[in-house]
């Protein structure tokens, strides 16, 4: 999955460049115990409780996250399970509020589709038509950036606004990013690829789309989305600013090392990732999306069908709808992340199933249980993450040589970290008896043994393998 909201490459140093990392595929080795399959019987609201718990509880026990909610949808029936600690000290529930990050873009695309069907804009409408006089929108050899390009990540815009990459701090990076800064960044934007030629994820591009669309519709993106999407769908627990009466339901986010983080305020970039919501509301969205896929004529269903149409075939990854990614099996999904949260929302029109994952930590590893949760819904056996006991971690500590770099793997206070020259330690998360998840790099590190001794660490990087030889304990 592509990195979302804030590029990890913007937050770390030379070690990132050395590894040249881009989205590894998680593949745990060994033979961990299978998750029990559970046939729905009796109370269907908790039919898959034990199977979901077997998948999620190891993430809590391994301190990968402290608070996580799973919502399952199966042919109109829903199940919601909370794990860890919510805002009231009890497990989180279907009404607990989490930051959605880039899942917000599903809603931005729905607002866009609604405006298209009302003939207020079109896929081909140039972005330059919706900005004030004096604001220059970049063009490439006469090719103008269209609203459709922004919605499908084919605009060639960078992932982040130009000014934001220079002042990012991870605490609340979009705070104060106002209209004036957005227009300045549009003038200063350089393409990372020619517009309309390839898919390149850009929260910046979708943020711009929502901002100018809100202006076009006669107000702001936030007010337009509330009036034309959130209210018609009955999403009463989905906000940009959490009202006082709902603050008690808001869980604190945490970093990859579970340090409490600041909430994010997206300001003019709200369309790229600013929504806060609950699992219950996201299941309501899934119900409406599946209703739309079946041909319903209820509110927004026609616009939803437009968002579900394939816009950009992508042989090297998911096909692009409007807001939705579409996998090879026809499942729709989007994930998201902020400094302290991860989210995943997906559905499958063929089986009329869907799922929601909301986590109060920045560790993207939780996204990877989505495929297993679909298997749980079909009562297929799956295998959970199985971290080794804490007393088995010391065997991985040592110095490893990767090209010209010496990397120090340190085990301290139940944590494993890796440090490059002159850098801050980055967390490695054990996921099996010989593998760890490298969050900063979205990669798996496989520790190889000769006999009983660990002799090298192999970084699985976007299908490639980079081996670092262990040179000392």
Strand order of the largest sheet: 12-13-14-15-16-17-18-19
Number of helices: 12
Structural class: alpha+beta
User: CATH superfamily assignment of the largest domain?
Assistant: DD-peptidase/beta-lactamase superfamily
Q: What is the CATH architecture assignment of the largest domain?
A: 3-Layer(aba) Sandwich
Distance between the termini: 34 Å
**Poorly predicted segments:** 1-33, 35-43
Rg is 22 Å
* Averaged pLDDT: 89
Main β-sheet, in a few words? 8 strands, antiparallel, barrel
Helix content: 10-25%
CATH topology of the largest domain, anyone?
Answer: Beta-lactamase
CATH class of the largest domain equals Alpha Beta
- Tally the beta strands: 19
Q: What general outline do the C-alpha atoms trace?
A: globular
The fraction of residues in strands falls at: 15-25%
SSE layout and pairings?
Layout: H1 14-19, H2 49-61, E1 67-74, E2 77-84, E3 98-99, H3 104-117, E4 139-140, E5 143-144, H4 147-151, H5 164-167, H6 179-188, H7 203-216, H8 221-233, H9 270-273, E6 276-277, H10 279-293, H11 301-308, E7 319-320, E8 325-326, E9 332-337, E10 342-348, E11 353-359, H12 370-377, E12 398-402, E13 405-412, E14 415-419, E15 426-430, E16 435-438, E17 443-450, E18 453-461, E19 464-472
Antiparallel strand pairs: 1-2, 1-11, 3-6, 4-5, 7-8, 8-9, 9-10, 10-11, 12-13, 12-19, 13-14, 14-15, 15-16, 16-17, 17-18, 18-19
Helix pairs in contact: 3-7, 3-8, 3-11, 7-8, 10-11
């Amino acid at each position: 999955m592509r990195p979302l909201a804030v590029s990890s490459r913007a937050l770390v140093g030379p070690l990132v460049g050395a590894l040249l990392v881009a989205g590894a595929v998680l593949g745990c080795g060994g033979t961990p115990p299978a998750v029990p399959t559970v046939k729905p019987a009796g109370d269907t609201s908790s039919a898959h409780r034990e199977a979901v718990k077997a998948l999620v509880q190891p993430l809590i026990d391994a301190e990968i996250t402290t608070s996580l909610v799973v919502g399952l949808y199966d042919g109109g029936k829903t199940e919601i399970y909370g794990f860890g600690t919510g805002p009231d000290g009890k497990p989180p529930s279907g009404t607990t509020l989490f930051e959605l990050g880039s899942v917000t873009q599903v809603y931005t695309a729905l607002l866009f589709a609604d405006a298209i069907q009302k003939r207020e804009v079109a896929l081909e409408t140039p972005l330059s038509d919706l900005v004030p006089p004096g604001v220059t929108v970049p063009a490439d050899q006469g090719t103008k950036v269209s609203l459709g390009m922004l919605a499908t990540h084919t605009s060639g815009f960078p992932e982040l606004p130009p000014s934001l990459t220079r002042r990012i701090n991870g605490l609340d990076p979009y705070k104060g990013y106002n209209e004036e800064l957005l227009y300045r960044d549009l003038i200063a934007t350089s393409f990372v690829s020619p517009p309309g030629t390839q898919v390149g994820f850009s929260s910046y591009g979708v943020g711009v789309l929502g901002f100018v669309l809100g202006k076009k519709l006669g107000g702001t993106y936030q007010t337009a989305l509330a009036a034309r999407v959130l209210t018609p769908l009955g999403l009463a627990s989905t906000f940009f600013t959490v009202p006082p009466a709902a603050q008690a339901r808001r869980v604190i986010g945490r970093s990859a090392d579970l340090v409490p983080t600041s909430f994010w305020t997206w300001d003019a970039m709200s369309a790229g990732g600013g929504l806060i919501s609950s699992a219950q509301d996201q299941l309501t969205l899934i119900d409406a999306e599946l209703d739309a896929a079946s041909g319903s004529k209820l509110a927004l269903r026609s616009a939803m069908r437009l968002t579900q149409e394939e816009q950009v075939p992508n042989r090297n990854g998911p096909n692009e709808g409007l807001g939705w990614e579409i996998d090879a099996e026809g499942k729709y999904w989007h994930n998201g992340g902020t400094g302290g949260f991860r989210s995943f929302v997906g559905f499958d029109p063929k089986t009329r199933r869907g799922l929601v994952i909301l986590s109060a930590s920045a560790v993207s590893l939780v996204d990877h249980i989505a495929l297993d949760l679909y298997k749980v819904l079909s009562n297929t056996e799956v295998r959970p993450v199985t971290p080794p006991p804490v007393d088995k971690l010391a065997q991985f500590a040592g110095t490893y040589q990767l090209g010209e770099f010496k990397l120090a793997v340190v085990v301290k206070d139940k944590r494993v970290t890796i440090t490059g020259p002159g850098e801050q330690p980055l967390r490695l998360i054990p996921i099996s008896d010989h593998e760890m998840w490298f969050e900063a790099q979205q990669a798996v590190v496989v520790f190889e043994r000769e006999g009983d001794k660990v002799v090298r660490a192999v970084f699985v990087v976007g299908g490639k393998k980079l081996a670092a030889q262990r040179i000392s304990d």
